[in-house]
Amino acid sequence: MIILDGKKTSSDIKDEITQEVLQLKKDGRKTPHLAAIIVGNDGASRTYVGAKVKACNRVGFHSTLVELSSDTSEKELLSKIEELNNNNEIDGFIVQLPLPKHIDEQKILMAVDPNKDVDGFHPTNVGKMALNLPTFISATPYGILELLDRYHVETSGKHVVVIGRSHIVGSPMSILLSQKRKVGNATVTITHSRTQNLTEITLKADIIIAALGIPEFLTASMVKDNVTIIDVGITRVEDSSKKNGYRLLGDVAFDEVSKKASFITPVPGGVGPMTIAMLLKNTLLASKMNN
Q1: Which of 138, 146, 161, 219 could join 120 via S-S bond, C-beta 3.0 to 4.6 A?
Q2: Which CATH number is 28-113 given?
Q3: How deeply is 191 buried, as exposed, middle or buried, from its count of CB atoms within 10 A (0-12, 13-18, 19+)?
Q4: Does residue 141 contact residue 173 with C-beta atoms inside 8 Å?
């Protein structure tokens, strides 16, 4: 069994980006610049955004953090997005989700300039991704492709089962892996809460991508020997034996499933760290496209 180490792989990618940025500076070209908008005081969101700013510093990017209060109106947020769309210094930016309930998330994502949408959430970029055209692939699916590629996990002709159909992970993953690409050419089955006989389906899978947000949902009895497991889920579960009072669990019962797997991602330290690395990769791409 081989652990797909997202921590190490993301560190390698950041080192590669650092070298590219040094070369850009050497050539007298613009330093990539990533901005992030955060609305309100959601603890997890602040942690994520802080990690993104830290990652920018590590690779030599410029970064801007726009902090808005939780009572910011939708109109004010749209105005801030328009400002970043028109700022030639900013190559790419993200709007950290979730947003306060009085703001329409879809309306906000639609307002981001597709050429600066390094999250890959704008319908223009989702459409290009579906047509296998060059574009920004959203960071989590992009990170999964990169992990599979760097660990030489064969996908061509394999049966992939995706559990979960979200627009952020499940749906794009099913499209990407079925496409004619280096990490692709798979036969993909997408499953969800209405799927019947799920275990019958997962037992036939060569690769399973679990992205449904239910801790330890996928058990050893649901998988065959030598399966490849990508665990996208991460849930805080109370644990009084831990100093911080909780532990992090994925969607896969790691201890039992890992005994049958040929490749598996851990939680934490698997898919999570890849997400920020791929956001940086998208920003580098945006910088090259826009300049």
Answers
A1: 138
A2: 3.40.50.10860
A3: buried
A4: yes
> What's the fold here for domain 139-273?
Rossmann fold (3.40.50)
Q: Which of 52, 80, 116, 281 is catalytic?
A: 52
Token pair of 291, please? 């300049």
Output the pTM of the full model.
Answer: 0.94
| 30-71 tens-digit pLDDT | 999 999 999 998 888 888 899 999 999 999 999 999 999 999
Instruction: Indicate which residue of 5, 80, 91, 96 is catalytic.
Output: 96
- Tell which residue, 161, 277, 138, has the closest CA to residue 228: 161
Please indicate whether residue 96 is annotated as part of the active site: yes
Q: Which amino acid is at 66?
A: V
Residue 71 appears among annotated catalytic residues: no
Tokens of 5: 């180490």
Same fold for the pair 28-113 and 139-273: yes
Selecting among 91, 119, 231, 251, the annotated active-site residue is: 119
52 is annotated as an active-site residue? yes
Domain residue ranges of the chain, discontinuous segments joined by +: 28-113, 139-273
Residues 219-259: pLDDT tens digits?
999 999 999 999 999 998 888 888 888 889 999 999 999 99
Q: Is 188 helix (H, G, I), strand (E, B) or coil?
A: strand
Strands (E), 115-166: 159-163
User: Phi/psi at 190 (nearest 5 deg)?
Assistant: -105, 130
**Cβ pair 151, 2 in contact under 8 A:** yes
